[in-house]
Amino acid sequence: MFILNSVSAVRRAAALTLVLATCSGAGQAASADVSFVMRNEHPNAVEVELYSQDRKHVWPGGNQVYYLDDGESKQIHLSCKQGENICYGAWVSGDKQTYWGTGPGNKESCEDCCYVCEGGETEEINLVE
């Protein structure tokens, strides 16, 4: 009788573990990594932020920016949610009126400045005068 109850208890515990493992992953988006490849071809330094269009998230965040000197290329690596839409905003350092993409604060609309987080890297994004 004890052996039968132990086997039954083990089966119930295994079934409960399987149900909990299945449910705990529900609603969580898979993460992915993507690299934005950017080149500053403007004669002045440029500041860049990357904005999720699907949630309130900014890279690098914390009131910081990615900084590219004139002529500099940079790979900006992000951890993002699989399928997330991310747009870049860039502007001349000290001159937020000269911008690319969604500009400072993600306030402008753009064409061809957004990418889906699917891993890999973007083509080189050239910021030109």
TrEMBL record:
What start and end residues bound the annotated signal peptide?
A: 1-29
Alphabetically list the UniProt keywords: Signal
Please verify whether the record's keywords include Signal. yes
- Which superkingdom is the protein from? Bacteria
Protein name per UniProt: Mlr4654 protein
Source organism (scientific name): Neorhizobium galegae bv. officinalis
